[in-house]
From TrEMBL:
One of its GO terms (molecular function) is racemase and epimerase activity, acting on carbohydrates and derivatives. Transmembrane segments: none annotated. It comes from Murinocardiopsis flavida. Pfam families: rhaM. It comes from the Bacteria. This is L-rhamnose mutarotase.
Length: 111
């Protein structure tokens, strides 16, 4: 499944946030693999961050990461940059992305 998240950076935190994401810790990557997260992309526009997470089951992955030591260390570290996440709903299903349209597909091009 693919889910979308939207977070907001603290004022003046963009450079630090981007620097922190040059490479995430290897133990966090291993935790992501273990819980079924296959990819996570982040785009930034000003203070707004747009995340797309590809995973087997987002709700299960987040539940498993809640007690994961690598994730707890990362959250403690990265939260100095993140002000908050915008709520898109209470359930992971509300965050699931369904493609509406894609230009490449309309053109008959390969993804």
């Amino acid at each position: 499944m693919r889910v979308a998240l939207h977070s907001i950076l603290r004022d003046g935190a963009a450079d630090g946030y981007e620097n922190a994401h040059q490479r995430i810790p290897d133990d966090l990557d291993a935790s992501f693999r273990r819980v079924g997260i296959s990819d996570w992309s982040i785009w930034r526009s000003g203070r707004h961050l747009f995340h797309v997470v590809e995973c087997d089951d987002f709700a299960a992955a987040m539940a498993a990461l809640d007690t994961d030591p690598a994730n707890r260390r990362w959250q403690e570290f990265i939260n100095r940059y993140v002000d908050h996440f915008e709520s898109t709903g209470d359930a992971a299903a509300d965050m699931a992305l369904g493609r509406v349209w894609r230009l490449r597909q309309q053109r008959g091009e390969r993804p």
